[in-house]
Input
Amino acid sequence: MPARKPNERISRFLSLILRHAPDTIGLTLDRNGWADVAELLDKASQHGTPLTLETLREVVAGNDKQRFAFSEDGARIRASQGHSLRSVDLALAPSIPPRVLYHGTASRFITAIRQSGLRPGARQHVHLSADRDTATRVGARHGVPVVLEIRAADLHAQGQVFYQSDNGVWLTGAVPVRFIDFPGK
Output
């Protein structure tokens, strides 16, 4: 397996700390998922991941999915979505989704999705993409990609709430099978 680039390693570290396990390094997130940047740098270094403000800014700016965001004053940082921590509320306003959104997954999960629909799993929300290409890239991370079409407008009309994170990812609760169009169907 090829060695990871340093910024990729830091990005994975930030995903762990800012989405799932801040307590791993003794970091505290506020109720909206924000962490104090100075505290993050200090705690990361204390726990074996030396990190400078310059590197942190580089990782945030260079992340192709814009997974992380700084507060307007640059003093705080958070993950844009994907939290498994139930205590975090990103305080996103409900949004009206487009007619169709896309979900990228691996082919090995299709049988389960046909039976139960899409579930957030350990995360707070199901993640959806506005375009097929992004969904394909997401699905490819986990195996042979399959792109599902989600009839988001119909689901929204039934009362389902949708949010759009700062990096453009659409978030919602469980998606029942009847709102999913499978390839070849």
Remarks:
- The longest strand covers residues 101-106.
- The chain has a mean pLDDT of 91.
- The helical segments are 6-20, 37-46, 53-62, 110-116, 132-140, 152-157.
